[in-house]
């Protein structure tokens, strides 16, 4: 079976590790954090849980990044500081980009040839520079992007419509951030146009702007009350890893590198990573939103170009 490495054992990295072990998706799990005692403690704690859960995943705490070079997949979940200690995402980027450079170049020099799943924020910019620094094929590096945001979108729609979220196809597109938007002109429920279905069932038009606000603010809502998000994003990252390891050919809105930018579009993920990107047909309002979102990401990419 496969090997997975996690860089960064904060809440997201730890939640990802827990999900990996409970689901048993790989034979070996390697944990690395700059705080070595933290990674060691998580490894021991997960071993305890593994013995109860009868998991066959072997768990290793590693002192050096080079020990991850043989992994099939590495999940980047490091974070320099918490958002409560930072005035803006831009400052978060300034901090994380330097650590990213050190991590990715170290792994490149150690001849890592696997695939990166990026959870670190700002997700699109970090994903873009992970690919640039690693020089791996673009389909082997992608970010969690709006995969979780799209799940939140479907969660809200499912509650309104009183149906299972699995019966809804709908995506958040663009930046994993405040400029993302719901591409509902492409959305469907049980093969029917979502907007038509919504109006037919509830007798009113869907307020797209309010829905987008709800999706975007959901992460902030959770963060303000518990100081972190972990279970949703951790599970999201592990589902993406499963899509690769099990060659699922499943559709996920993830941050994909396109030339000089990375942003979220729905993509088929299988054993080769990003196997196909679906370029949706947007209506005029959505086209404007997409261009605005892309510009926000480009601005962020340019803001740290001198640090790479």
From TrEMBL:
Protein family per UniProt: Belongs to the LDH/MDH superfamily.
GO BP annotations listed: lactate metabolic process
Stored InterPro entries: L-lactate/malate_DH, L-lactate_DH_AS, Lactate/malate_DH_C, Lactate/malate_DH_N, Lactate_DH/Glyco_Ohase_4_C, NAD(P)-bd_dom_sf
Record has Coiled coil as a keyword: yes
Keyword terms, alphabetized: Coiled coil, NAD, Oxidoreductase
Coiled-coil spans in chain: 280-307
Pfam families referenced in this protein's UniProt entry, alphabetically: Ldh_1_C (PF02866), Ldh_1_N (PF00056)
All residue ranges annotated as the Lactate/malate dehydrogenase C-terminal domain in the record: 146-306
Claim: GTP-binding is one of the keywords in the record: no
Annotated NAD(+) binding sites: 8-13, 33, 96
Annotated transmembrane regions: none
Protein name: L-lactate dehydrogenase
Originating organism: Campylobacter jejuni
UniProt-annotated catalytic positions: 176 (proton acceptor)
All copies of domain Lactate/malate dehydrogenase N-terminal, residue ranges: 3-143
Binding site residues for substrate: 79, 89, 121, 152
Gene Ontology molecular functions: L-lactate dehydrogenase (NAD+) activity
């Amino acid at each position: 079976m496969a090997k997975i490495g996690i860089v960064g054992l904060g809440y997201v990295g730890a939640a990802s590790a827990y999900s990996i072990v409970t689901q048993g998706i790989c034979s070996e799990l390697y944990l690395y954090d700059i705080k070595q005692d933290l990674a060691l403690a998580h490894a021991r704690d997960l071993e305890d849980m593994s013995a109860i859960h009868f998991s066959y995943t072997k768990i290793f705490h590693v002192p050096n990044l080079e020990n991850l070079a043989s992994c099939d997949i590495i999940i980047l979940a490091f974070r320099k500081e918490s958002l409560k200690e930072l005035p803006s995402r831009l400052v978060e980027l300034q901090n994380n980009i330097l650590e990213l450079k050190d991590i990715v170049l170290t792994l490149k020099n150690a001849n890592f040839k696997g695939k990166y799943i990026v959870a670190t924020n700002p997700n699109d910019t970090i994903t873009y520079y992970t690919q640039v620094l690693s020089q791996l094929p673009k389909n082997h590096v992608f970010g969690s992007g709006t995969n979780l945001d799209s799940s939140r979108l479907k969660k809200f729609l499912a509650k309104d419509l009183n149906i299972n979220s699995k019966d809804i196809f709908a995506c958040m597109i663009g930046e994993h951030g405040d400029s993302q938007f719901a591409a509902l002109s492409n959305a469907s429920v049980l093969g029917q146009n979502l907007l038509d279905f919504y109006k037919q069932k509830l007798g009113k038009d869907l307020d797209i702007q309010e829905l987008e606000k709800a999706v975007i603010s959901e992460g902030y809502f959770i963060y303000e009350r518990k100081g972190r998000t972990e279970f949703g994003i951790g599970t999201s990252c592990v589902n993406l890893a499963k899509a690769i390891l099990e060659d699922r050919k499943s559709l996920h809105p993830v941050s994909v590198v396109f030339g000089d930018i990375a942003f979220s579009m729905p993509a088929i993920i299988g054993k080769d990573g990003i196997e196909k990107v679906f370029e949706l047909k947007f209506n005029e309002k959505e086209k404007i939103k997409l261009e605005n979102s892309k510009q926000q990401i480009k601005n962020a990419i340019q803001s740290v170009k001198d640090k790479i």
